[in-house]
Every structure is written in structure tokens, then in C-alpha cells.
Amino acid sequence: KHTTATPAPVAPPQTTTERAGTLVVQTPPVLEQAPTIAEDNHELHAEDLVTEVSVLPNPAQESATINFALANESKVLLEVFSIETGQRVMLLDLGTHKSGESSTRMNISNLSRGTYSVLVRASSCQYALTTFVKE
After folding, report:
1. Which residue ranges in the chain fall short of pLDDT 50?
2. Residue 48: which domain range?
3. pTM of this prediction?
4. Which residues pair with 117 in a beta bridge?
5. Number of separate domains in the chain
6. Running DSSP on this structure, what letter comes out for residue 6?
7. Whole-angstrom Cα distance, residue 112 to residue 110?
8. Residues near 27 by Cβ (< 8 Å), separated by ≥ 6?
9. CB-based contacts of 68: which residues, under 8 Å, 6+ apart?
10. CATH number at residue 60
């Protein structure tokens, strides 16, 4: 079976500070155009692979549960970015997950208070983005 993946470029979250320390968060679109995975002679679009992603509770303190749903079996990576700095602060390799709903518990006790973005990667392409607040 021959599989080729075309990843889409992803810009890290951006922040700007305005008067009196007010933080304005500008999260650019993660996908300009959905990457495709060509498998044999048909294509799957990235938006068809990850159907949802959420973080609970939000805001969180010591740990958070990442819920996601996959249309197809995929290798899953989670990346966590600080909204304040744009830097990646965590990378979790969740291995291969079957299609359907999945979840994982993430220890965030070592993260500073702030706002973070979670990026879900499946099958080497980047698909879904959500944010959460660490108290």
C-alpha cells in the first residue's frame, strides 16, 4: 500500500499587546488549503480525518482531557503551543488510534498560567486546533 502525505504549513499562534496590558489573540488559519493523503488511487481530505477536538475542563489546573474524533485510523500527535510566546511547550505521541471518538489525559501542572493552543496531527498532516486556559 502506497501512502503519500502533503502537510500544510502552520503558523504558530500570534499575540499583540495593546494599551494597559490588554492581550489581543490573533490565531491565523491553520490550513490555507486542506492537505490530502493519496492512498492507492483515491484521496482523503484532511478535514475528513479529524472531525472534532476539545479540551476539558477549560480552564484547567493540573490536568486536562483532550477529546478528538477520527474518521479513519491514524497515528496521532498532539502539540501544545503557548499563545503568549508562540513556542511549542509540549509534544505528545499518542500512537495509532482507531476511527471514532478518543481521549487522552494531559498533565499540565508544569505549564505556567496562560492560554495555550492544542494542535492535533493525524497521519503526518495537521488538522484541528483548539485553545484552553491554564489557571
Report:
1. 1-19, 22-42, 44, 47-48
2. 3-134
3. 0.62
4. 81, 131
5. 1
6. -
7. 7
8. 13, 14, 83, 117, 129, 131
9. 50, 52, 53, 54, 76, 101, 102, 103, 120, 128
10. 2.60.40.2550
